[in-house]
């Protein structure tokens, strides 16, 4: 369910609290982060907020590298915020891989909600975790995997029951 409007959400501003939570959750990275913080504390950084933002962005990039080197990443069920997309539809970003150009998100649709029609820049995978949704004459149910291929437009998606979807899709250009 990726669109150019969604890509703006995918590229949201850096979240310092989320980065701190990820650091605390990573035993691999915790000791390295402490050494790094101790070293940074000794620096005389400018008061310009952009410098602090760049510093935290560098720390987040390092965390991504450490996670890739460790070979795993866990996103806890209670981590992350649900961002409203449309009335009755919210999105929770799980992971973004800008190097490989894809993202993983959850989409939560309340009963009776609609997701507007949209196109795809690459293969989108949609696994229905709960509920079901409809478009055209198709009903996609819990446990179903729905694939949408590049340059194919989805008509509007509707759910009577509500739905929880896992989506893996390419990042919009």
Description:
The protein is of the alpha+beta class. 31% of the residues lie in helices and 31% in strands. It is built from four helices and nine strands, in the order ααααβββββββββ. The strands form two sheets. Strands 1, 2, 3, 5, 6, 7 and 9 form a seven-stranded antiparallel β-sheet that branches. The chain has a two-stranded antiparallel ribbon with strand order 4-8. Helix 2 runs parallel beside helix 4. The longest helix is centred in the middle third of the chain and has 22 residues, at 49-70. The radius of gyration is 19 Å and the shape is elongated. Residues 2-12 have low confidence and may be disordered.
Summarize this, please?
The chain has helices spanning 4-10, 16-25, 27-41, 49-70; strands spanning 83-86, 89-97, 102-109, 114-115, 124-135, 138-141, 145-148, 157-158, 163-170. It has 173 residues and is of the alpha+beta class.
């Amino acid at each position: 369910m990726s669109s150019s409007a969604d890509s703006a959400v995918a590229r949201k501003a850096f979240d310092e609290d989320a980065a701190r939570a990820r650091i605390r959750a990573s035993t691999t990275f915790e000791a390295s982060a402490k050494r790094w913080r101790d070293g940074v504390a000794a620096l005389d950084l400018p008061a310009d907020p952009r410098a602090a933002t760049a510093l935290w962005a560098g720390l987040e990039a390092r965390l991504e590298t450490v996670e890739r080197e460790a070979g795993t990443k866990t996103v806890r069920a209670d981590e992350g915020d649900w961002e409203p997309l449309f009335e009755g539809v919210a999105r929770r970003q799980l992971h973004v891989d800008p190097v490989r150009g894809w993202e993983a998100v959850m989409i939560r649709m309340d009963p009776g909600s609609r997701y507007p029609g949209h196109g795809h820049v690459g293969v989108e995978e949609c696994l229905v975790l709960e509920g079901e949704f409809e478009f055209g004459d198709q009903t996609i149910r819990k446990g179903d995997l729905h694939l949408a291929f590049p340059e194919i437009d989805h008509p509007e998606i509707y759910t009577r029951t509500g739905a929880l979807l896992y989506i893996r899709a390419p990042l919009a250009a």
